[in-house]
Amino acid sequence: MSNDYPQLAKDLTVAIHGLRKAAPKTMAGFSAMAQAATVDGVLDTKTKELIATAISVAVRCDGCIAFHVKAAVRAGATREEMAETLGMATYMGGGPSMVYSAQALEAYDQFASTFVKKD
What we know:
Elements: H1 5-22, H2 24-38, H3 45-58, H4 62-74, H5 79-112
């Protein structure tokens, strides 16, 4: 089974926009929390997005995988860093996490092919 993660992210963005209109205060709070959590601090944004990807695998959330793998790619995560992160997610989550790790690596490949790498 193969997902089109870039399309999934686009589709979910539209759906989330509708949720923002329906529950603006809650979604504004969630957005503020997301911004605060992902800003560079002791951990850089790339590391935080790799952690979020591992958690996405652990909780088996396809949409979360799409959003956080995309963010990790944009933050400069390499395929090797993604694979090592997914190895930890698999170790901690067993067989189901292995399946989602395979899908997250597929998502990485899809998003990485759409971004031009900077020198």
